[in-house]
Automatic annotation (TrEMBL):
Name of the protein this chain belongs to: DUF4235 domain-containing protein
Lineage per the UniProt record: Bacteria, Bacillati, Actinomycetota, Actinomycetes, Propionibacteriales
Alphabetical keyword list: Membrane, Transmembrane, Transmembrane helix
Top-level taxonomic group: Bacteria
Chain ranges passing through the membrane: 50-68
Organism: Nocardioides marinus
Length: 92
């Protein structure tokens, strides 16, 4: 079953990251009335905008991945009757 969990874990994390980035890009474009920086490391990009984009994307993608992986772990637990490998509680 560990291969099943591995696929579920990676698939949910990747999917969540893609969706979060798309939502954030759309939201940024509407709020700032321009596209987000394509490459925040580019010296021609304003440092404040580069930092804001980096912080926003990092936080949004991390939270989305965590929520997706928790959902995948709940589904796995309901289906398999136990926590996924690596999430088992010691001595419980």
């Amino acid at each position: 079953m560990s291969k099943v969990w591995s696929v579920m874990e990676k698939g949910s994390a990747i999917g969540a990251a893609v969706v979060a980035r798309k939502v954030l890009t759309t939201g940024w474009a509407k709020a700032a009335r321009r596209k987000p920086p394509e490459n925040p490391a580019d010296p021609d990009v304003n440092i404040g905008e580069a930092v804001a984009w980096a912080v926003a994307t990092g936080a949004a993608v991390s939270v989305a991945r965590m929520l997706a992986m928790r959902g995948a772990a709940r589904y796995y637990t309901k289906s398999a009757g136990h926590l996924p490998p690596g999430l088992e509680k010691d001595g419980v």
